[in-house]
Amino acid sequence: MNVNKIRQTERLTGNGIALVVTQLFRLLFGGFLIGKDLYDFLDPESALTVLVIYVLIGILTTLFLLGKRYGVTGLIVLSVVLIIMQSIYIIAFFSQTTIDPSWHDPVANWWATVLNFLFPLLTLVFAIKVYRET
Fold first, then answer.
1. What CA–CA distances, in Å, run from 69 to 14, 84, 134?
2. Could you tell me what percent of the chain has a pLDDT over 70?
3. Please, what's the b/e burial string for 28-38 (b: 16 or more CB within 10 A of its CB; e: otherwise)?
4. How far is CA 96 from the centre of its chain?
5. Whole-number Å distance between alpha carbons of 24 and 45
6. pLDDT, greater one: 127 or 134
7. CA 54 to centroid of chain Cα atoms
8. Where are the alpha helices (DSSP H) in the chain?
9. What is the mean pLDDT of residues 65-86?
């Protein structure tokens, strides 16, 4: 067996490792949100929506780990979309004259609201750095 023909495995850079760790924590947080929606809020439609979003995050992260550049591109696009959607949700929630009880209160769950901005923002920063490195 010729040693020169053995393909060297690619290693993740520091930004790539940070991106993967961010996604792992993000997936743990997504599982927590799904449980909250199902058992605390009794809202299976919201839980299904969260499940679809986090399955998509998992697929894109897996594609990134497999070396596919469109995995990183998908994470960038998804993070931008999620930041915009969360911003619109908060603006719409606070612009209501009478609060609709079916909406999840972002003030009561302020930590979840902060994490819903923090994780996509961290993903965006690290994914752009990884995209520039490749």
1. 17, 23, 8
2. 90
3. ebbeebbebbb
4. 27
5. 24
6. 127
7. 7
8. 14-35, 44-65, 69-94, 110-133
9. 95
